[in-house]
Design brief:
With about 120 residues, the chain is of the alpha+beta class. It has three helices and four strands, in the order E-E-H-H-H-E-E. The strands form two sheets. It has a two-stranded antiparallel ribbon. It has a two-stranded antiparallel sheet with strand order 3-4. Helix 2 (about 55-60) crosses helix 3 (about 70-90). It comes from Ferrovibrio xuzhouensis.
């Protein structure tokens, strides 16, 4: 049975540092990223909603060929933002696909249709 832990962003007092570093396990090994407390809270909300953990989310974002941000931290931040924007119905942000166990950005062609690759 998995161990349920208190979300790490809640361990930092509100007067503490705004950036919090946490470790993640990816397919390529262990790494750490620094996010704002609110970003950790948003990531935890996504993970709860999607039934995955932080490690699975980060792994999916890390291996997404449609993401071109330079660092893992940037890719995670962008994925969090894209997730909430796409679900809000505002703006022209492409949808985020989660259905098949993958978490990926979806690029639309000029007609609004999803691009296919390969």
């Amino acid at each position: 049975m998995p161990v349920t832990r208190r979300p790490a962003h809640l361990d930092v007092p509100p007067s503490g540092p705004s950036l919090v570093t946490r470790n993640l396990r990816l397919e390529r090994g262990r790494t750490s990223i620094r996010l704002e407390r609110v970003e950790w809270a948003a990531l935890d909300a996504i993970c709860t909603s999607e039934g995955i953990d932080r490690h699975a989310f980060a792994t999916r974002v890390d291996r997404d060929p449609m993401r071109h941000e330079k660092t893992l931290t940037s890719r995670v931040r962008s994925a969090i933002l894209t997730y909430f924007i796409s679900r809000s119905g505002i703006g022209a942000t492409p949808p985020v696909a989660l259905g098949d166990g993958g978490f990926r950005a979806v690029r639309l062609d000029g007609s609004g249709q999803e691009e296919t690759h390969g």
